[in-house]
Every structure is written in structure tokens, then in C-alpha cells.
């Protein structure tokens, strides 16, 4: 398989040596060794800091989408009402996921180049529809946008909506995530974005209210949350945990916390600002609308008219730079630069921008 010396895909990102080394130890059976439970507890505490929560954090073996599915299936019964606040591919997609779980879904939709601004339409639908759950995506990586969530949390509290479900997979660690302050009951994360680990671990914070809903729903599938509520207390996990994956995730979280969350946020903002400055100098235009909030972890760029995405991608890869296309309605229209995790690095980003300037 060919590798590229300038990796700028928005996840999975380049994994640092210290994280890869966590794979090298031969571990015993994790469901029988107290050292694993100690590692799980330590990892959970680190993730609580990254997610801004005092709530329990469940850690699962699997890619970030696992957390999105497990929260829906564990909390929803057929006919439950879900209000999907959607500004992009993943926001609309989560609404479809909830429908497939049997929920009655109403979508408050915005343009793919927009972010949550005026809350009037959302409030109107909350008041009329009275949902059990509101779903939202913090960072829409296909669009390069970041949704403000504090206002949505206030509406959730004002109207006593039981659950606020937020996908923070591509923001946690690279932008502030304040799950408790924003009234988020289910904050859903993954290892492969700003934490700079392989795509092997999913995690999510679970509020006391969410645990009530989980017990009431009683979902018992392989990906069910219910068994995790007492897994640490009883030292009995629902399936064999992935010790190496847990070690990798904990190492990644420790590196991030050692840097300091505020320092990480500043590093991501600096990388994003530099990237967008260089893009403007090249005459390229960003996809998000002028009044949208752009993500500090990924930039979405309109493809120049003289290129198809395949042509642009091939030309960049020929010079060692790997970027990404997008999904759904954005497929073939934009390309994305992932300046998240290890890739929020000024030296790497300078190389990437120099290659892009030479091609476009």
C-alpha cells in the first residue's frame, strides 16, 4: 500500500510513535486481570476531562460510529420522538439512523454550508414536537463547520427534553467540548480524530437521565450500553475488552492532556487560520457560508473549476500530499484538509500548502 509523506486527511490521522508503542506489549486476558480495570478507569478519567463531564464515560471496542449507533439503540424504543438538528451529511444521517431504530423523526434542517445560528425554528419544533431526544453534530467534517451547542443545551433544559445527543467525534480534543455545561446527555467520541489514535475505540459520556432511559428501553444487543453501567463496579464486561486498544486510547489521551487542552485548542486554531490564509492567497474559496462557524479541525474547500476531484487528488498525491473528498451532495464539489490531532502541525501544514499552491 502506498503511503504519503504529507497526510492531511480529516481522520484517521497520522498516529504518533508513542501511541503506536502501546500496541507492542503482550497483554493477558483483560477480563481477568485487575491491571486492565485500572487502565479502563484511568482512561475514563482522562476522557472525562476531554469531554468536559463528570458523567460516566463508556469505552467500547470499535470505530467512532459505534458510539453513535449504540446511543440510539440503547435509548430509543419504537415510536419515540427524535428531533434531528441537521447542518450537514452526518446531522441528516443521524436522523436516518434514528428512523431505522424505529423512532419518529422530525428534522430541522439547515444548508450544508451553514451552522446553527437563530434558534427560533429549533425552539418552535421542540415546543410542538416534544421530542424524547435531540440529536446534533458538533463538527460536521464533510462541511468543515462547527455548530455552537450552548444555545441548544439551554433549549433542552428549558423544555425539559430528556436527552441531548451530540456527535463530538471530530471536535473532542481539538475544540472545547463542555458536555455538562451544554446539557449534553450523550457525548459521542472516537479515537481516530483529534486524539490521533487508530480507529479502534469509541467512547461516550452517559448522564444519569440517559441511564434511566437506557434501563427503561432495555436494549440487549451486542452494542448495548446497559451492561456497562456496572461493568467497572462488578469487573464484568459484556465482551472481551481490547486491552491494546485501551492502552492506545489512554496513551493518546495522556499526550493530549500533557500538552494541555487550552494549548491544543490554540494549536488547532493557529493551524486553521494559517491554512485558510494560504488558501485565500491561492484564490481558492472555502465551502462554508461567510456567517457559518468554521471548524478548527478541518477546512472544506471548493474544487477549482479546472479540476475534477479525481484530477486534483491525483495531482496532489503525485507530490506526496493526501487530502480527502466529501460525501453525499458534496461529493465531487469540495475537498477537505484535516488539520486535526497530529496534523495540526505548522511544519506539516506548510508543506501541504506549498504542494497545493504548486498544483492549483
Averaged pLDDT, please? 97
Report the radius of gyration as a whole number of Å. Answer: 20 Å
Most strands sheet:
7 strands, mixed
Task: Give the overall silhouette.
Answer: globular
Helix-residue proportion: 25-40%
Quick one: how many beta strands? 13
CATH fold name of the largest domain: Aspartate Aminotransferase, domain 2
Low-confidence sequence ranges: none
Helix/strand-derived class? Answer: alpha/beta
The CATH architecture of the largest domain can be named as 3-Layer(aba) Sandwich
Number of DSSP helices?
12
Strand content: 15-25%
How many structurally independent domains? 2
Q: Can you identify the CATH class of the largest domain?
A: Alpha Beta
Distance between the termini: 26 Å
Q: Going across the major beta sheet, what is the strand order?
A: 2-10-9-8-5-3-4
Annotated CATH homologous superfamily of the largest domain: Type I PLP-dependent aspartate aminotransferase-like (Major domain)
The succession of helices and strands, N to C, reads: EHHEHEHEHEEEHEEEHHHHEHEEH
Describe, in plain words, how this protein is organized in 3D.
It is a single chain. By secondary structure, the chain is α/β, with parallel strands linked by helices. It folds into 2 domains: 6-13 and 261-359, Aspartate Aminotransferase, domain 1 (Alpha-Beta Complex); 19-258, 3-Layer(aba) Sandwich (Aspartate Aminotransferase, domain 2). 39% of the residues lie in helices and 16% in strands. The chain is built from 12 helices and 13 strands. It has helices at 17-20, 34-51, 65-75, 89-100, 120-129, 150-158, 208-217, 231-234, 243-259, 261-281, 309-318, 346-359, and strands spanning 6-7, 56-61, 81-86, 104-109, 133-137, 139-140, 145-146, 163-167, 186-190, 201-206, 298-302, 321-322, 334-338. The strands form 4 sheets. The chain has a 7-stranded mixed sheet with strand order 2-10-9-8-5-3-4, with helices on both faces. Strands 1-12 form a two-stranded parallel sheet.
Amino acid at each position: 500500500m502506498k503511503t504519503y509523506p504529507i497526510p492531511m486527511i480529516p481522520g484517521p490521522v497520522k498516529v504518533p510513535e508513542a501511541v503506536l508503542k502501546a500496541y507492542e506489549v503482550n497483554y493477558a486476558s483483560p477480563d481477568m486481570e485487575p491491571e486492565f480495570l485500572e487502565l479502563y478507569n484511568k482512561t475514563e478519567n482522562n476522557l472525562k476531562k476531554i469531554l468536559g463531564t463528570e458523567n460516566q464515560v463508556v469505552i467500547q471496542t470499535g470505530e467512532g460510529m459505534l458510539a453513535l449507533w449504540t446511543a440510539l439503540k440503547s435509548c430509543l424504543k419504537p415510536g419515540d420522538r427524535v428531533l434531528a438538528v441537521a447542518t450537514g451529511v452526518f446531522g441528516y444521517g443521524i436522523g436516518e439512523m434514528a428512523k431505522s431504530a424505529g423512532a419518529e423523526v422530525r428534522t430541522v434542517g439547515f444548508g450544508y454550508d451553514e451552522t446553527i445560528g437563530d434558534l427560533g425554528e429549533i425552539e418552535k419544533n421542540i415546543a410542538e414536537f416534544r421530542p424524547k431526544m435531540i440529536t446534533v453534530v458538533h463538527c460536521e467534517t464533510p462541511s468543515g463547520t462547527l455548530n455552537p451547542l450552548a444555545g441548544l443545551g439551554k433549549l433542552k433544559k428549558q423544555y425539559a427534553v430528556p436527552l441531548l445527543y451530540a456527535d463530538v467525534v471530530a471536535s473532542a480534543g481539538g475544540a472545547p467540548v463542555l458536555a455538562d455545561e451544554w446539557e449534553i446527555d450523550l457525548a459521542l467520541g472516537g479515537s481516530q480524530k483529534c486524539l490521533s489514535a487508530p480507529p479502534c475505540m469509541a467512547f461516550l459520556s452517559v448522564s444519569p437521565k440517559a441511564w434511566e432511559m437506557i434501563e427503561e428501553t432495555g436494549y440487549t444487543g451486542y452494542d448495548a450500553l446497559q451492561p456497562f453501567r456496572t461493568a467497572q463496579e462488578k469487573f464484568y464486561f459484556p465482551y472481551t475488552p481490547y486491552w491494546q486498544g485501551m492502552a492506545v486510547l489512554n496513551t493518546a489521551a495522556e499526550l493530549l492532556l500533557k500538552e494541555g487542552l487550552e494549548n491544543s485548542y490554540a494549536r488547532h486554531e493557529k493551524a486553521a487560520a494559517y491554512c485558510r490564509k494560504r488558501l485565500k492567497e491561492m484564490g481558492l474559496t472555502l465551502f462554508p457560508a461567510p456567517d457559518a462557524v468554521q471548524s478548527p479541525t478541518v477546512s472544506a474547500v471548493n474544487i477549482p473549476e479546472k479540476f475534477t476531484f479525481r484530477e486534483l487528488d491525483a495531482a496532489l498525491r503525485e507530490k506526496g500530499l493526501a487530502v480527502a473528498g466529501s460525501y453525499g451532495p458534496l461529493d465531487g464539489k469540495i475537498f477537505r484538509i484535516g488539520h486535526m490531532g497530529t496534523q495540526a502541525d505548522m511544519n506539516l501544514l506548510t508543506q501541504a500548502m506549498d504542494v497545493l499552491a504548486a498544483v492549483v
